What we know:
Elements: E1 6-10, H1 19-34, E2 38-42, H2 48-61, H3 76-89, H4 97-100, E3 106-107, E4 112-113, E5 116-119, H5 135-144, H6 151-155, H7 158-166, E6 174-178, H8 185-193, E7 196-201, H9 205-229, H10 231-236, H11 240-246, E8 251-260, H12 267-275, E9 283-289, H13 292-299, H14 317-331, H15 338-345
Parallel strand pairs: 1-6, 1-7, 2-5, 2-6, 7-8, 8-9
Antiparallel strand pairs: 3-4
Helix pairs in contact: 1-2, 1-14, 3-7, 7-11, 9-12, 14-15
Amino acid sequence: MGKNAKIISIINYKGGVGKTTSTFNIGVGLKHLANKKVLLIDLDPQCSLSTICLKALTRRTGEINNLKNLPIERTINFVIKKYLEQTITGDKPILNLGDLIIKNFYKGKKYNLDDIDVICATMFDDTSSDYYKGLDDLEIEIASYHFGDKTRLQQLTLFSRFFSDTNIMNEYDFILFDCPPANNLITQNALMISDYYLIPTIMDEMSSNGIFHFNSLIQNTLLNGFKQQYSTELQTFNAPFLDFIKGKDAKLLGVFETLKKTQVDTNQYRRMINRVSNLTDCLFEEVIYHHKDTAKSAGNGVSAFSIDLPEKGEYAPDTCYGNLIISILNKLNIEFNIEKANQRIKIFC
Length: 349
């Protein structure tokens, strides 16, 4: 019997909150600390997560890997295009996960980590035009497809078709979507099939006020709105991709503070979030402190657990992310060796 992945969208409609860096470090940390098999999927048109992972792959293989030499067949763009074609032709796409997924991409400073994989995005797809296209172009294409009263049903089930056709979730313990800072159709596709979503945020007045609206938008306008609009289809149609959606009910896993400066008191904004009734107990105690080496190292394909700092105190990147990951695992009631995980936070990989 295969695994049954927890599918988590990491998302904030506000940019500049360390979302991609956090997705990368949480993914690597789940493997490093708890020996979980992880798949990262890049959904951001900027392709930052893909760039990070390809740099790690270059370090591991010794061969140059970048977005420009990445075949379209190895990207989420390819998946979206194939399932868009299916909405027109009705033909089931034939996808080879072995070709699509880049496996075992991570190399730390000391050793390789297996069982952490990635599906990249690209902004250099020239297979159907004489200029490069990316996920933002595909977003426009998805929005241009109309199917009468079934338009949203077709537009928002691309990923549920992909997941139900391939059973990809049976290969992993965790699948993490790095979502763009936008409420677009590709983001909505990810949320439709997620078990949870996780919100990284800086703590200021605008961000704290925005989280309540953001959570309401996801729960009421998107998820509940979709299921109400297509309740008949979900109850009566015999289709695996609809069964997949029926089995999902994305919940807020939590909000965690990022890029905190040690000299800045953010408690008033944390209290603002905790006072909102449907956000009570959603705020993780663990904080990701601002550290100049975290983003710089991630940009070079190096995780927080591979940053060799002379002193590793409570504000160190590996300590911050390690403690957050342990809390995430506990909140999900995931079985792992907590003593070993705490030990491995301090082990430079």
